[in-house]
Specification:
Layout lengths: L6 E4 L6 E4 L7 E4 L2 H16 L19
Antiparallel strand pairs: 1-2, 2-3
């Protein structure tokens, strides 16, 4: 099994959690809870992996806080 880093944000207007795997085209989903989002993303990633190992376009490098 492979592990993927997922970026999760919450949409202020809908309250939905939105998640995506950086650099993995098509690996994104949304849900009303973090548990549901995790399940959705596992399903999406499993479906995408049926086509073979992904050719990642980028890799998660980290986060920074900037004061402006």
């Amino acid at each position: 099994m492979r592990q993927f880093t997922v970026v999760v944000e919450q949409d202020f207007e809908t309250g939905l959690f939105v998640g995506y795997v950086p650099g993995f085209p098509g690996a994104h989903s949304q849900a009303g809870s973090l548990d549901e989002l995790s399940e959705n993303l596992c399903e999406v990633i499993a479906m995408l992996l049926e086509d073979g190992p992904p050719e990642l376009e980028a890799e998660f490098a980290g986060i920074q806080t900037i004061t402006a």
